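Retro notes, structure queue

What went well: the backlog is down to a handful. What didn't: a couple of records were mislabeled last round, so from now on we paste the full input next to the output in the thread. Example, using Leucine-rich repeat-containing N-terminal plant-type domain-containing protein from Spirodela intermedia:
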Amino acid sequence: MNSLTKMILLLALVFSGSNLPTAGAGTTPACSAADRAALLGFKASILKDTTGTLSTWTATDCCGSWAGVGCHPTTGRVTRLELQRPLGGPAGAGLFMEGVLSPSLGNLNSLEVLVISGMKRIRGAIPDGFSRLRNLTQLYLEGNGLEGALSLSGNRLRGRLPPSLGSLTSLVQINFGSNLLTGPVPLSFRNLRGLQYLDISNNFLSGAIPGFLGLFQGIRLLDLSNNQFSGEIPASLCGLRNALDVSLSHNRLTGRIPLQIGSLWSLNTLSLSGNLLTGPIPDSIAGLRKLWYLNVSRNGITGPLPGAIATGLPSLLSVDLSYNRLDLGSIPAWARNRPLRDVHLAGCNIGGNLPSFNNGDSLSSLDLSDNYLVGEIGHILKNTSALQELKLSGNMLRSDVSELTLPETLSTLDLHSNRLYGSLLRFLPRIGGFMEILNLANNRISGGLPEFGEDLSLRWLDLSRNAITGVIPTSVSKLRNLERLDISRNQIKGTIPSSMGEMTNLRWLDVSSNSLEGRIPETFLRIRGMQHANFRSNRLCGQIPQGRPFNIFPASAYVHNLCLCGKPLAPCKHIA
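Corresponding output:
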């Protein structure tokens, strides 16, 4: 079964100014014989219907009492077919339609709205005949069991974008996001001059970004992200004066950001991250007065930054310049003083002491990872009352963790690979109930592990490569939400608590390179979703839990212990 078996397909093709009758509402002429035959063809292709909808399709007039069918008030032609699973939750679990989409639906040539949603067991392909639905304005096929080669207008969602869509010149919205489409954007799409919304993100589309997209003067959203587009960003895109959101991120785009980028006067968000762009950020970008989100991270962009940014971009809230070839030297004053929400300057060659931020009341996310910062971090934590995410990893910062006071709002704290020291006994009990990700790996932290309370929401805890001593407290099992625990490469002794078998959300466990002894608890077999475990280089002995996944992990996960045995290692000769 391929990955499309449970794929949710949502294709919304919306005309502007549509004023359509509600399904089943009002008094209408009798429906045409051709439309009735088309609907009965669909009914015949449904082998089982537990929703009861199709049981109403018995009378001669399909515009009268047929559930889900709506007709034009004067012509009697079927304009709407809306079949949605009536109930959600446990009460609706047994409601479905089982069968395939009948090609006869392609004969409903006055159809404007087609919704077949949440039926779960409607499988197969979208019939090629759907390309004949020239009046179609909305098509929703979500929550079904469609699989294999889905097709529209003679093309497959595993293949290329349908060139025939270029003939639907009244379209204002197209969403083909999150499919398996390949190849270039068809040249016929240049006819879609009225398009306001184009989302073809998360596919495998390739070739150059068509310059004709710059002719779509009404475009509000353009999302081409997460594809394989190459070449330069067409300068014509800078003519999209009404565009609000443009994302070209995570492609293979080269060259420079167009100098005319400042002509996108209406732009709210611009994402160019994850490409191969080079050269400086154009000065004209500072003229985008409505831009609040700017992400050009993970490219090859060089400095200097436009000086006008200090006073331009008056609406800016979120900026990400991380991992380019910028050599900032220090954090720009505007990034510390303006009321920004997100400041991401990771890998920007920033050195010196970690400065204070004067926008602490607004700052929600700060990422200064992989720079050359030194000094203490306590003042950052004290002066950022709204901070939710702090990433300072890969620097040379020094602080006693036992003296750190964390904002109550903090949910992610990544301080790995610095020069932190001190004990966790006072620090961990103060992390708060919002903390989900805590990474203190590769520092100089010592002392034992504290007792854990039940009020913690941790999903990720990495304390590896420190100098932590003592034992694993049995209260670690109270971390019921924990998905990843790494305490490897420390000096922890004692046994592995059997209570850890209660941590059924664990997906990743690494306790390697410590001095643990005793057995691996049989209770671990309760953790059925474990994807990675590493017990190597301890003093463990006895039989490895003989059940999946522990008996199928690689042998390297258990080597260099005292006397572990059983699959995947050699059989046990004697089990105490």
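Agreed that this is the format going forward. Reviewer comment attached to the example: The chain has three helices and 41 strands.
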